[in-house]
Amino acid sequence: MPDDRRPSRFSVDLFPAARGWIRDAACVGEDPELFFPLIERESEPQVARARAVCHRCRVLLACRRWAVEQGEDVGIWGATTAAQRRAIRRKLFGGPAGQATGKTVRTRRE
Ligand code: SF4
Question: Which family does it belong to (predicted)?
Answer without folding.
Answer: Belongs to the WhiB family.
